[in-house]
Amino acid sequence: MVFMTRPPLYYGQYLKLDRLLSLQVAESSKHGAPVHDEMLFIIVHQTYELWFKQVLHEFDRIEQDFSANPVDDEAMAHIVHSLARVHEILKLLVAQLDVLETMTPADFLDFRDYLFPASGFQSLQFRLIETRLGLPESARVPLDGEAVERRLSTADRQKLAAARKRPTIFALLDAWLERTPFLDWGGEQFRTAYRAAVVRHLSADVASIKADAELPAERREREASGIDKALEAFARIFEPDTNPDAWRLSPRSVQAALFITVYREMPAVQQPFRLLSLLMDIDETLTFWRYRHALMVERMIGRKIGTGGSSGHVYLRSTAERHRIFGDLFQLSTFLIPRSSLPELPADVKRRLGFVYAGP
Ligand code: HEM
């Protein structure tokens, strides 16, 4: 047996607990004024960093599997599994803020001054997570007009620069969606029928808003023009050259994502649908973390500036709104129509998307 051929492993030795548990060194103690809650503050942050490490480890596997062409069933199963794990970790990271909030603002004030100018803002692993998911640098909210990396050490800056050269999950998704074959299976005729059904449906919405005498004129106008804009964005995915800015994904990728979403029950697109849903779950939970963190910061430090020098919760809140990555997938819901209005899937497409054994 294996365990007879090597020395027995001891729990603490395997997990390097002597090292791990000696890494919580309070700045307040170093200054001769130990503050009880600084231990909690350090442990919560260190735990975050450990989970960030796990998330990045999952991203490594996702990058490898998603870079294959084609992405086979086994690789797709790995990707979906890893994304589901990342989502569970992010939920845990949101919940962890509850533990930290058992520390009162006054307790925090007892050791906060020792931390300047260190800040979560300098968390390299957090930046790597955002970057590898696909947050574009151009979309980042600058801090006092400066790029994020200005606050990082030279070594961390180099690591971030190296990560920017890797394919992001967003880019891999875009490339994979573009390649999806089933878009062409129904031919131009099916695409035209689906497009017409959506336009009919949304145009009927515009007409009924305009005819609703109960609504104030100004609101009628606003809502109708919102749908008109959505119709314009929808047209872009069929006529890509007019305004490529409407979507971040390529027009063909948006079509594929829409098809997957609409026909999500067909066996061949069930896993792809799960993949799209998990990416939205991750985007949503990360955004939720940003809001929760911003609220906690407001509660802890009020209107003071952060230890990293930012306008605290104001900066953080704007990142929650602007640092979305898979916003295109959320937009798709505008173009969903009731099942009863969907064009019939051509029989051949239906057969190819199904698993029913049709005999030899
Ligand atoms: C008492 C608790 C906390 C306070 C008062 C606080 C405060 C702040 C503030 C004010 C900022 C903005 C940058 C600055 O000026 O420093 C910030 C950014 C950040 N904090 Fe916290 N934080 C706390 C806990 C945490 C925890 C537990 C984590 C987990 C790792 C964390 C991670 C981050 C990250 C990643 C950023 C950068 C966010 C971005 O730029 O989008 N913070 N924090």
* Anisotropy-based shape: globular
Strand fraction: under 5%
Summed over residues and divided by their number, the pLDDT gives a mean of 91
- Broad structural category: mainly alpha
Order of helices and strands: HHHHHHHHHHHHHHHHH
Spatial separation of the terminal alpha carbons: 47 Å
- C-alpha Rg (nearest Å): 25 Å
How many beta-strand elements?
A: 0
Unreliable stretches = none
Please give the share of residues in helix: 55-70%
Biggest β-sheet strands, sense, barrel? none
What ligand species are in this complex?
protoporphyrin IX containing FE
Q: Helix count?
A: 17
Structural features, described:
It is a single chain. The protein is mostly helical and 360 residues long. Helices cover 63% and strands 0% of the residues. It has 17 helices and no strands. Helix 4 runs parallel beside helix 7 and helix 7 packs parallel to helix 8. The protein is globular, with a radius of gyration of 25 Å. The model has no long low-confidence stretch (mean pLDDT 91). Protoporphyrin IX containing FE is lined by residues 44-45, 48, 100, 108, 119-121, 123, 126, 293, 297, 300-301, 306-310, 312, 315-316, 319.
Keywords, please?
17 helices; binds protoporphyrin IX containing FE; mainly alpha; globular; single chain; 360 residues
How do the strands and helices of this protein lay out in sequence?
Blueprint: H1 11-14, H2 17-20, H3 27-30, H4 38-66, H5 73-100, H6 105-112, H7 124-133, H8 154-164, H9 169-179, H10 182-185, H11 187-210, H12 217-236, H13 251-262, H14 267-301, H15 313-322, H16 327-331, H17 347-353
Helix pairs in contact: 4-5, 4-7, 4-9, 5-14, 7-8, 9-13, 11-12, 14-15
The structure holds protoporphyrin IX containing FE.
